[in-house]
Amino acid sequence: MTPKQADRLRQQIAAIRRTLAAEKKKFGGYDDSRGLRYLPTRYYVQLADFAGGLTYLRWFAKNFPDDAGFPDFLFEWTLILFETGKLVQAEQQAFATYCADRQLFDHLLARPLTPLESWEEAPLPAAAYGAYFTSLGPPLKLAAFAQWLAAWLDTARFTSRAAQYGRLRQQVQAEVDRATRHALLDHLRAAAWGPRGRGGRGYAVATARAGDGGGLRAQRRRTSPSRGQPITSN
After folding, report:
1. What does the pLDDT look like over 11-61, one tens digit per residue?
2. 36 DSSP assignment
3. CA distance linking residue 38 with residue 13, whole number of Å
4. Which domain, by its residues, includes 169?
């Protein structure tokens, strides 16, 4: 990346922050129907400014506590946590990423794809994953993260939790009683997000992946139509 390209990305980050600040000043809160708030994490990753990305994510978590995000946004959040040495938090965020898109890590690590249920739909077309990872920068940038991620995916901490999450998803999908289904969704939220799930963010991710609300692809169309497209620094 040239200095000019880096300056352009930083200008885009600053412009987004100004737009969101102006929106809050005018309306007393954030609407952001364009999904601008999801873009800075990718820019920070492209810049390899992980400290700046962490600062932004602290602001994001404070101002959008009920925001489920999208799989690629959650992935970038995980990467930023890893690169800033926040490994415990990175594991939690990695699991949230897995719950939002159970094949994303498979594409990154060139592993066999996790089979999807008949009622599931992948958030992105298969061909889009490679373009997305390329948009983040050269492969070397992700090498250490990929090594850590591959090791974590083989731990009992992940496999047992993933199995529990899978069982809950199947129960939610099969349940027809409204009250029981709601209770199961609460358990699904907790399984996806741990203690942080009680705030609502895990609910949005978990219910979408369980077949409610049209899935994450429908969420993306409603909230940020451009989020699934690779963003380059050209």
Report:
1. 999 999 999 999 899 888 888 888 999 999 999 999 999 999 999 999 999
2. G
3. 11
4. 3-223
